[in-house]
Amino acid sequence: MTKKKTEKTAEEKKKPVKAEKKENADDFWTDELVEDEQAEEVDLKKLKFAKIKELKLGMEGVNVTAKIDFIGNTGGKEYGDEPYAVGFIRDETGEVKLTFWGDDIKKAKKGKPIRVINGYVSEYKGQLQLNPDRARGIEFI
């Protein structure tokens, strides 16, 4: 049985994508990929940036500028094909957890400023974490 692909609205593209089991994939779990995921050009002057202390569970469309405060060791491939490293970013109001994936691990250095555009806030093991937009990722500034 194949599912018919439908065009997603701009609002649907903003929502976090949940992992789902692909049919006929030998029990392999993966994130659904949104077709044509490309970061749109954004006029930064028109965006509202949140402070870390303002972040609340469930927030979407979040824009944050902060500095990397801590980067942990690179983890294995337990959650997919890409390596990951758990880190924390900080601004003058607080800190929040952020996971760096793939090539972003090499770019991530303590004290380096970053920007997350159109991210969302979730919780893992009782701790808030900021998640970057899948298409845009983390911007190193």
What report would you give on this structure?
The chain has 141 residues and is mostly beta strands. It has a domain at 44-140: Nucleic acid-binding proteins (OB fold (Dihydrolipoamide Acetyltransferase, E2P), Beta Barrel), CATH 2.40.50. The protein is built from 2 helices and 8 strands; from the N terminus they run αβββββαβββ. It has helices spanning 10-14, 104-107; strands at residues 19-21, 29-31, 60-75, 84-91, 94-101, 113-124, 127-131, 138-140. The strands form 2 sheets. A 5-stranded mixed beta barrel has the order 3-4-5-7-6. It has a two-stranded antiparallel sheet with strand order 1-2. It is globular, with a radius of gyration of 16 Å. The model is unreliable at 1-6 and 13-37 (pLDDT under 50).
What's the overall average pLDDT, rounded? 78
CATH architecture of the domain at 44-140: Beta Barrel
Strand content: 35-45%
Please tally the β strands and state the result. 8
What's the arrangement of secondary structure elements?
Elements: H1 10-14, E1 19-21, E2 29-31, E3 60-75, E4 84-91, E5 94-101, H2 104-107, E6 113-124, E7 127-131, E8 138-140
Parallel strand pairs: 5-7
Antiparallel strand pairs: 1-2, 3-4, 3-6, 4-5, 6-7, 6-8
